[in-house]
Specification:
4 copies of one chain form a homotetramer. Helices cover about 30% and strands about 20% of the residues of chain A. By secondary structure, chain A is an alpha/beta fold. At the A-B interface, helix 2, helix 5 and helix 6 of A face helix 2, helix 5 and helix 6 of B.
Chain lengths: ~325, ~325, ~325, ~325
């Protein structure tokens, strides 16, 4: 941590600051210049309150040199984390494809999708049952019944399942669900993150529309700090002034986050681009950037989907997209 | 709602769409041009699924003409909503000042703040006890104990109290709290919004960093759809590329939201600007823009605050800021 | 164009508006609803002033249905534009690789780069001589002398050359330059765009940090309206709250713009990501998204570059990146 | 400047870096920690190339401690700059009101506006003659003729005049113009900034939609580095995801920039909010935040304006707005 002092700092206050830091076993190295004095702090500065120092009269600015996250940080865990679920590996070079409908609509629908998704090359099945919707008047899923149909598809087609969770009251229904998904809207729902930190199942954490890389990694740190180290980071775009798409998918996030963290990184193009015609090319980009997986929304008949229809792939396009993604992965 | 068709739409599909809309009691008025055909839909289009229409092959784009929110919409409720709590009015031309520390730290601290805030002219007392923090290692408040101290301050100084809630498990401790506050991080925590829709207490809903005006109003609609019509909207800035401040406080939001909705609008400069030196001038701006209230963080000794120190006002600056705000309100 | 009227519009004003529109050969189709009346305008609405209508008392909102650009619009030119320069094709499925240093530093340096870039697989050579720099104290290039060295490299290595232009006073020095590049900072320098509209050379137009897709296409329209139809659009990222990179490269822009326009689309990862370690993966993404070309900064010795060093590729990394890009293009 | 080294830096490279810095008369103070080594650089670091250091293999990151601007920096010029034009002071506590039409449309129109604006309390007259328009098909002003009418209004009503300039070819027509305005689109047109640096007239520099505070101040530094120290900074909003308004007016920028720089700061609400109904409240906010001036678009008949009609104030609203602004300024 670097503390930049104002010009001519009060010597008593400066002495007080240095003593307070040394009490916390932080060594202080001053660099005195004509215009500015800088303090270099060395030691376990993660526990020092940066904001508190910044509030002092004699301080101009505080700059963090070390990242505020530990468990997610690649510096302390150089090897890639690989998460295995029902024989499917996520992380470390493979390309895990998750596919399924935004909403489980009926037993028949999810059984059809499961068959089609598996045939198209998907290795994990998604189905929404407790969905986060921005309108109180919108369909929010079949709830427990939806998860039962999803579990039946899992057994019938021998494919691990993924579904969105948003509250502890839903937890009892998720017994058969293999991976719990946190939507972008809940990325900073710290109650939920704390709850998931105590589960023994992998969690897919979706980046919120306004999350910096650090915000995103700090949300993962929340889950890991609770004891659950099986976190998969899902890039899903951020909000920008270009509203042609719902969010702007940030492919650069893929190599950046893989540099900063050892956790697997996947991406969610459908929810970001909102228009199915864009999904194949953006999916290829995601694979080319080095993602560990991809989440594709699909529906037997997108035009009649109850949810997310405009961004869902038909079975044919799903198959073509997965094939293209695998071809790219193969030539990297 | 306006449906813009692609050039030369398939006549069967077009007929199907019109029939489907008419089944929903929507009248369809086509405008046929050389380049484009446009359908004007008239009726209760709020219940028509815009995304579903957009997904049709023959459709180029769908544009909503009516807002997707009803309860919050000024068109259907032309008069300003005024919320009264313990004799304090919020909305309709008054200037409600809420002040208090980011965190209740001790009985002594909150009693001191309550006395100072009241003397400075604040009419409502804030104190955090269950705080949303972006780091799992940060202090998250005294919980139940904090709310007990806050309630004691309420009784001693006869001032209504406000505190942040983030989960239904916390609800039992909020009996004495007069106004429940939803933080920016939880603005799209739909479980929480649904819960608050069933309470009989006013709610301050803080705008999330990535919420458009429509997103913000839809979150309020969630609470109102549950039956609780006492919602206060709090502008707290949005995230932009300028990171000198935590977020960019959007004063234009104040007149815009007052035009779109009848609900009271307040603003939260401290959490937005992050640096106490900016709070007085930004607070004056908020008053000048026509806000119904303001939320100011204060601490007897900001340098030693456990939370939000750099953005908290000292008692003297709090007093000056409230006086300036009232002077501006007086000359409008 | 759609005009949404306020409730109960004044009949005289409405009649006036309709008459004024009909004078401009626009047909007006009204859709009268209980809540709202909508006018559908049909005809050559590109010349109608949308802002003027929006300013009328009786009008609530105006929505454009047709794009405000004509020459760049794929609707009127369904076939891909292919631009050929010195035997190199840009557009229509090929992958044009432009490489070179941010600044021509010396005759020796640009000759070395030309040899290396050509060997690595680049087909066009870039070199900056009149650079847009955000600091008045920064090195702005060798000017005329730089372009002479660049032209010598062109002759020696038989490779077409590209350089940035920012003012008409520079034009005389660009005789040998094959493609003129407009930097992001100048995308809305309308004097410059008008000037380039009168040249007979292809122009690479770089997207500004705050340009929506429409802004970007309108800037291209400026050049085309002047008569120069050889415009290449270069995606270079937009500014967002994540400042780890200089801008956020928007790969989704590639398929979107190719859908909206017939012009070739390339991308400029180096200036966007700012850190060389990110360039290879982002370049692969760009190819996978379907770009017609890519612009890569390279330097024989990035550590000692006078400009853009941190984002420049060494000759080895340039070669690997171009090979990876071509492998991806081959499997699409 | 702070240089953060990677773990276990190569000693030879480190020695080389230190020697290279000392050659530039920079003193280097190392802080060696278990995890990280930090170099504190002291001396005239403004001339050291930060990017070049960042590109070194042994360097993790470089953080600037001092601002890259000198002439605009309040640290080196603690007193407010006050610019005087024709008896009107801009800066240092006064409230300079500039008013006028987006475009001079005719002699009659500008004479009418001049009379109305002066009567309403404006002290400077604006009129556009060479306008930056985002469409090549839009009206770009009367050019030389427009400036002649504007100059006539100046003589008749004894009021200093302001107009937009975008190119050196226009300069001869600006003899009678008192203040030259650079639009947001041209804020990074460095040719134009260099040209204005050699003029002996004050310049209003408008913040571009994607300019950080530092970008904005660096653009002013460009003009000042050329010798022209009469620069007025105009806040005009930045682009965000909320597109209800053209840009988001950033009132916080007013106190921030006044803290960082000694130059006068004004704001331009009309071009930012785009809708006239928002201008009065946003104008009051601007005054309350401490701006040195405000620029208001006005037109005798906004509905029939050739340009910027929807955002122009009628003479009555202009008068009310100026009065409200002055009342607020009086109570600060």
């Amino acid at each position: 941590m670097i503390v930049i002092l104002k010009k001519n700092p009060d010597p008593d206050q400066l002495e007080g600051l240095v003593a307070w830091l040394e009490d916390q076993h932080i060594k202080v190295h001053p660099t005195v210049g004509a215009e500015q004095t800088i303090l270099g702090l060395v030691g376990d500065t993660a526990s020092v309150d940066q904001d508190l120092i910044a509030a002092l009269d004699i301080v101009d600015e505080v700059k963090r040199v070390q990242e505020p996250y530990k468990n997610v940080n690649r510096k302390f865990h150089p090897d890639n984390t690989v998460i295995e679920v029902g024989g499917v590996k996520i992380g470390g070079g493979s390309m895990a494809v998750i596919a399924g409908p935004g909403a489980v609509e009926s037993r028949e629908q999810i059984m059809t999708v499961a068959a089609e998704a598996k045939a198209a090359g998907a290795r994990l099945l998604y189905g929404g049952a407790f969905m986060s919707r921005s309108s109180p008047y919108a369909f929010r899923g079949l709830g427990e019944e939806g998860l039962q149909y999803l579990a039946e598809a899992k057994r019938t087609y021998d494919i691990p399942i993924v579904s969105e969770i948003s509250d502890d009251s839903q937890l009892p229904y998720f017994k058969d669900v293999d991976i719990l998904l946190v939507s972008a809207a809940n990325m900073q729902n710290y109650q939920l993150l704390s709850l998931l930190g105590k589960q023994e199942k992998p969690v897919i954490l979706t980046r919120s529309f306004s999350a910096t890389y650090e915000d995103f990694l700090m949300a993962a740190e929340y889950i890991m700090a609770g004891g659950n180290h099986a976190v998969i980071l899902s890039e899903s775009g951020i909000r920008t002034f270009e509203m042609y798409t719902r969010s702007m998918l940030d492919v650069t996030a893929i190599p950046v986050i893989k540099q900063l963290s050892h956790l697997p990184v996947i991406a969610d193009p459908c929810r970001s681009v909102k228009r199915a015609y864009l999904v194949p090319s953006v999916s290829r980009s995601i694979a080319a950037a080095g993602a560990d997986g991809i989440f594709l929304e699909t529906h037997p008949d997108p035009t009649h989907a109850k949810f997310d229809g405009p961004q869902s792939l038909s079975p044919e396009v799903l198959k073509e997209t997965i094939e293209a993604v695998r071809r790219i992965k193969a030539v990297l």
